[in-house]
């Protein structure tokens, strides 16, 4: 269902959709979730129908400095995002330059390969490692994990101490608009510490040793403001913060896939790629 509401004295119209997102309910054990085999998850799901604002229609576009979220024009030289070799050869340098520009940091490290995800209607969904949309609200890293990852990925040629670091997720669709399963993002200003629950994120690839780190799942809070960007093209990306060591900056943007009920039936299933990077400011 899509609705419209009036915002501001100018009478401009903001578009909303309603969607179900899965929070985490109170649990007596530590939550645990798996990249591939969700049947092994230890999660008490708390589904909630929420109003999700189409940020395309907002009077003021969200920014990294305010909500911790921005949409940025970004053409890539990658011709086929399914081609892992092509992505590895071209995309990290593109993402590094993008994050340098949007953050103003001294240096940026891309912290992993591209993660492809496909909506459940696609035959490709689940065929690759970690290739299903995340259907519960989460934040990629806890503070402790973010600090450890920042130290591990810091540029080796800079000896000065780290004054500040920030982790970013860069999310791009390469299926044509409109997307049936877009990404919902929560305004970082509306998130309270009590909403966040430490959890084990387990990477379970068949034939390989499992490994894990501490991520965060999220409890319901009626204050949460949810956003999405309708009709994305492959020449733009959502950039959002997953952690920032500076207490004065927005940080920890919860996010989740959701079904857009206003999307026409029969559109191609969503295909997307995520890249992660850490920005550094040195003393």
Brief rundown of the structure:
The protein is built from 2 helices and 16 strands. With 283 residues, the protein is mainly beta. It has one domain: Jelly Rolls.
Distinct helical segment count = 2
Distance between the termini: 50 Å
Second rung of CATH, namely the architecture: Sandwich
User: Main β-sheet: number of strands, strand sense, barrel status?
Assistant: 6 strands, mixed
**Strand line-up across the major sheet:** 1-2-4-13-10-15
Secondary-structure-based class equals: mainly beta
| CATH fold descriptor | Jelly Rolls
Describe the structure.
The chain is mainly β and 283 residues long. The protein has one domain (2-282): Sandwich (Jelly Rolls), CATH 2.60.120. Helices cover 11% and strands 37% of the residues. The protein is built from 2 helices and 16 strands. It has helices at residues 84-103, 143-153; strands at residues 2-7, 12-24, 32-34, 45-54, 69-73, 107-110, 115-118, 138-139, 162-173, 183-186, 196-203, 211-218, 226-228, 236-244, 255-257, 271-282. A 6-stranded mixed beta sheet has the order 1-2-4-13-10-15, with no helix packed on it. Strands 5, 6, 7, 9, 14 and 16 form a 6-stranded antiparallel beta sheet that branches. Mean pLDDT is 94; it is low at 6-11.
């Amino acid at each position: 269902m899509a609705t419209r509401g009036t915002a501001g004295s100018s009478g401009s119209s903001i578009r909303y959709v309603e969607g179900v997102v899965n929070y985490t309910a109170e649990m007596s054990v530590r939550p645990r979730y798996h990249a591939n085999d969700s049947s092994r998850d230890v999660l008490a799901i708390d589904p909630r129908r929420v109003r999700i604002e189409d940020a395309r229609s907002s009077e003021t576009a969200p920014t990294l400095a305010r909500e911790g979220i921005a949409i940025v024009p970004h053409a890539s030289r990658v011709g086929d995002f399914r081609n892992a070799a092509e992505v590895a050869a071209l995309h990290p340098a593109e993402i590094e330059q993008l994050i340098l520009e949007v953050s103003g940091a001294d240096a940026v490290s891309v912290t992993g390969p591209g993660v492809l995800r496909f909506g459940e209607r696609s035959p490709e969904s689940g065929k690759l490692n970690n290739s299903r949309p995340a259907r519960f609200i989460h934040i990629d890293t806890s503070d402790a994990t973010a600090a450890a990852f920042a130290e591990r990925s810091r540029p080796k040629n800079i000896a000065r101490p780290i004054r500040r670091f920030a982790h970013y997720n860069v999310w791009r669709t390469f299926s044509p608009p409109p997307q049936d399963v877009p990404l919902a993002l929560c305004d970082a200003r509306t998130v309270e510490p009590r909403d966040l629950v430490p959890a084990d994120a387990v990477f379970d690839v068949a034939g390989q040793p499992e490994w894990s780190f501490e991520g965060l799942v999220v409890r319901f809070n009626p204050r949460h403001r949810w956003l999405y960007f309708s009709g994305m093209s492959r020449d733009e990306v959502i950039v959002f913060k997953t952690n920032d060591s500076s207490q004065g900056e927005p940080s920890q943007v919860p996010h989740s896939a959701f079904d857009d009920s206003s999307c026409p039936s029969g559109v191609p299933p969503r295909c997307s790629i995520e890249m992660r990077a850490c920005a550094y400011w040195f003393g």
